[in-house]
Write a structure and sequence with these properties.
- It contains 13 helices and no strands.
- It is mainly alpha-helical and 325 residues long.
- The protein has a single domain, classed as Orthogonal Bundle (MetI-like fold).
- The model has no long low-confidence stretch (mean pLDDT 85).
């Protein structure tokens, strides 16, 4: 009986060991995840909830400790009738509709250059990516010097080409200056993602296309572009949220009179929705209204992202088509 019972004990012990191992792996997973999870809860989730609660109140610097009242949707109704808020939202939409396609085209072009057989590949990769690692403030002030009205590099180049040498880029063309900074500053990040996507495309597909007589443009349109659509989808969403994140830092730093106060000298065309909310909160001390504008901007981002995902059903190649599913 003892001999017959031994395998049964061993067999019963194996599931317990497997369950114990799964438990340890689960605990290890959540242990490694906990720093990010705690940071997300403390620095993102809780502030979002508090900001929404703030948007339903009349909280200002005046009644910070007294006469604080629940006002319901009054701040959102006020935002609906605020022409400046709508103008900032319009400028934000225009910025996203401009910078995201520029990013995608630039990043894909740089990735295709690196994917080709060129000399000094490491040098080119470093030159294309170096702007990403330059600190934000440093790259902004470099561009302010380049865009200066008196003796800036951009005006010198325009003057050499026969154009005007006295353009005030920071005041007369603030959004164009911002676009140049953003394209240069973030092209390297997306370039690496596109490069990884290009490397994942089987070379056999290109060989078959060459045998069939497809040109370089035909191979790009028929093979490269369709297989990169999942990467393009990711870059679209990433670009939308990157623009939302950077659309108040750079306009402030690019302001001609930054030392005069937070956002006080930002040109009107560069006052995007998140910066407009920031000005209402910290400039005017109107916390309730500023929080309402911020939540309107969050809703705007959610709508844009949802539209991208819904449209992706019609143009993103998932790989199922080749199996007839």
């Amino acid at each position: 009986m003892a001999t017959a019972g031994t395998p049964l004990v061993a067999t019963a012990a194996k599931p317990r060991r497997r369950a114990s191992r799964r438990k340890r792996e689960t605990l290890a997973f959540y242990g490694f995840l906990s720093p990010w999870l705690l940071g997300f809860i403390a620095l993102s989730s809780i502030p979002l909830v508090l900001a929404f609660a703030m948007s339903l109140s009349n909280l200002t610097t005046v009644n910070l400790h007294t006469n604080l009242q629940y006002v319901g949707a009054d701040n959102y109704v006020r935002a609906y009738h605020d022409h400046e808020m709508w103008y900032s939202l319009e400028r934000t939409g225009i910025l996203m509709a401009t910078i995201v396609p520029l990013w995608i085209v630039t990043q894909l072009g740089l990735a295709m250059i690196l994917n080709a057989s060129i000399k000094f590949l490491g040098l080119w990769r470093t030159l294309f990516f170096i702007a990403v690692v330059v600190p934000l403030v440093a790259k902004t002030f470099v561009w302010k010097a380049m865009a200066a009205q008196d003796g800036g590099l951009i005006n010198r180049v325009l003057g050499a080409l026969g154009g005007s040498k006295n353009v005030d880029w920071l005041l007369d063309h603030p959004t164009a200056t911002l676009l140049m900074v953003l394209v240069w500053g973030y092209a390297g990040t997306g370039m690496l993602i596109f490069l990884a996507g290009l490397k994942s495309i089987p070379e056999e597909l290109y060989e078959v296309a060459r045998v069939d007589g497809a040109s370089a443009v035909g191979r790009f349109v028929s093979i490269t572009l369709p297989l990169l659509t999942p990467v393009i989808m990711f870059q679209l969403v990433w670009g939308i949220f990157l623009t939302a994140n950077e659309a108040f830092v750079y306009p402030i730093l690019l302001s001609p009179g930054l030392q005069q106060g937070l956002g006080s000298t930002v040109p009107t065309d560069n006052v995007f929705t998140n910066l407009y909310a920031l000005q209402r909160i910290f400039g005017d001390g109107d916390f309730g209204y500023g929080a309402a504008v911020a939540w309107i901007f969050v809703f705007f981002l959610l709508v844009v992202t949802a539209l991208i995902f819904v449209s992706g059903r019609f143009w993103v190649f998932s790989g199922k088509e080749q199996y007839g599913k």
